[in-house]
Amino acid sequence: MKRIIILLLTFIASLSLVGCNKSTTTKSKKQSESTTTKGTVSNSSTTSSKTTTGSTIEGGYYLDNFPYKTFATDTISVSKIRSYYANFNFSTQTISTLNKFLKDTATGLNSQDYDKLKQTLLRSDAVPGNSTKIRLFYSQDIVNAKWDSAKTWNREHVYAKSVGGFGNDDIPSQDLHHIRPTYTKVNSTRSNDPFGVVANRDSHKVIADFGTTVSGYSSGGVFEPIDAVKGDVARIIFYTCAMYYQQYSINLLKMIASRDVQLFLKWNREDPVDEYEINRNNVAQGIQGNRNIFIDFPEFAEFIWG
Predict the structure, then answer these.
(1) Is 221 among the domain residues?
(2) Domain with 154 in it
(3) pLDDT tens profile 238-274
(4) Is the dihedral of CA 70, 71, 73, 79 positive or negative?
(5) Residue 141 and residue 210: Cα distance in Å, rounded?
(6) Which of 19, 45, 159, 267 has the greatest number of CB atoms lying within 10 Å of its CB?
(7) Among residues of the chain, what percentage have pLDDT more than 70?
(8) 3-state per-residue secondary structure call for 35-52
(9) 304: which residues sit within 8 A by CB, 6+ positions away?
């Protein structure tokens, strides 16, 4: 009887890690050498014979000897990616070792705070080539790059802080990879709802604070982003879960209404990384030191959670 109780307690304890890590053991991947010439950039996804386990993402290309496709093509981004991951062994990483890598490289994160983000977001979310404008997250609307005491926009915790068990003074509320600017009322409508699919969504549109832009869909305690940012949402939550693994109450499945990680993996595939995400990743690295690995290599999410 005592042995049965011990086995039962061990099984229950193991379930607590499911949300952030599909497996705590080292995973292996079938990899073949890339046929892409080292040091060159190609937009073709057919220039490599390298394969990965799980679903692949359309587009992108293999950079040098990295085992996953990237969507960065400009020389600045490519240089940053090469340098940042130079000593990162993709084939032997687990969620815990990824967590350490992200934390070790976030050398400037502690110098930030939630209040400063009012100004920092003006840099990270500026429209490329036009620093007088920023792009709001859920609506993708362009507004003036200024803080007007939240009359227009506010700081959105993509991973809801009340669900994650952290406050504005805690590190996740200072992390540029996790905080995005959104319309103030849209921010309030989303509240702390998990992400998911809203049935009959055209009857449940969330309209932007100004104008008629659809900023998502909300019904029954579920928030569905517009299609153009679904991949962005997934990659932000992937990062937040990896960065704050076993901290606070952060758990990947808490932010998915269906409690099925396949939804985020699907969004990650169907809404691939765009130039804006790549540029923002560069800016965030310049400010706090680390990068969102799931923007640089979106297929890596399949390795961790697929």
Answers:
(1) yes
(2) 94-295
(3) 999 999 999 999 999 999 999 999 999 999 999 999 9
(4) negative
(5) 10
(6) 159
(7) 82
(8) CCCCCCCCCCCCCCCCCC
(9) 21, 22, 93, 95, 98, 238, 242
How many domains would you assign to the chain? 1
Q: Which pLDDT tens digit goes with each residue over 145-200?
A: 999 999 999 999 999 999 999 999 999 999 999 999 999 999 999 999 999 999 99
Alpha helices in 157-270 (DSSP H): 161-164, 184-190, 230-243, 262-270
**In the chain, what are the helix, strand and coil shares in percent, each to the nearest 5?**
40, 15, 50
Write the single-letter amino acid at 243.
Answer: M
Q: Residue 228: which residues within 8 A CB-CB, separation 6 or more?
A: 140, 271
Alpha carbon 280 to chain centroid, angstroms: 12
Q: How far apart are CA 31 and CA 22, in angstroms?
A: 21
Give kind and range of the element (H or E) at residue 98: helix 95-105
